[in-house]
Amino acid sequence: MSESYKKTWSPVEDEKQLILAQLQKEVGACMQCGTCTASCPNGFAMDITPRTMWRMIQFGMVDEIFESHTFWMCSSCYTCTLRCPRGLKLTSVMASLKRLAMLSGKGRKNSAFYRAFMENIESHGRVQEMGMMSNYFFKRMDNPTLPLKFVPLGMKMMAKGKVHIPGGGQGAILKPLFAKAREMEGLS
Ligand code: SF4
Ligand code: SF4
Question: pLDDT digits over 105-133, tens only?
Fold first, then answer.
């Protein structure tokens, strides 16, 4: 093994390159028709449209992709996958982008809401608003004033009875399902 190779080689870097190559192959046939973007129920919350995301993957724009929170907004509803005229596995691509971001140690800020949401569902079987937001603020301690921004929304939700007191829930039933999903997404 050459000295330069020893210095640059890393299993994580190898895996990142492998995932990126697989993603480029997966979206290589995208013809930019925009059906996925028009169909995505979470598109309004994404900073980059799914259609543009596939193009960025084709161009290998890794840093720009990680700056985005688009793939953290994907709720794996499979609508884009079902409607893509090219039959591309777009939901899997979004899951792989989450994995790639975690491998790269990037996107932790953008992933905070997603992780808080999923951990809450796993623990309670449904969203417990107070618990989820506490967890989210804890993950975003880099921004200590963030909770203040949510005060007006929290007040409105409480007034309408939309905030529930944490309870027992169905977490024990869901844990094996979450473990399997993590395994399939390569996040375990
Ligand atoms: S629906 Fe399919 S072909 Fe059309 S832009 Fe989206 S990924 Fe590309
Ligand atoms: S799977 Fe994700 S990207 Fe595709 S339509 Fe659903 S939320 Fe949007």
Answer: 766 667 788 888 888 888 887 778 888 88
Ligand 1, residue 54: give the atom nearest the CA: 7
Spell 43-74 as b/e; 16+ CB within 10 A means b. Answer: beebebbbbbbbebbeeeebeebbebbbbbbb
Please tell me if the CB atom of residue 169 comes closer than 6 angstroms to any atom of ligand 2: no
Helices first, then strands: H and E counts in the chain: 11, 0
- Residue keyed to tokens 């996925």: 36
Angstrom distance (rounded) from CA 98 to CA 66: 9
Q: Does ligand 1 have an atom closer than 6 angstroms to the CB of 62? A: no
Verify whether ligand 2 is closer than 6 Å to residue 75 (CB atom). yes
By C-alpha distance, which of 65, 97, 117, 104 is closest to 185? 97
Low-confidence ranges of the chain (pLDDT < 70): 1-12, 106-109, 165-172, 184-188
pTM for the model = 0.70
Take atom 7 of ligand 2 and give the residue whose Cα is closest: 74
CA of 88 to the centre of ligand 1 (A): 8
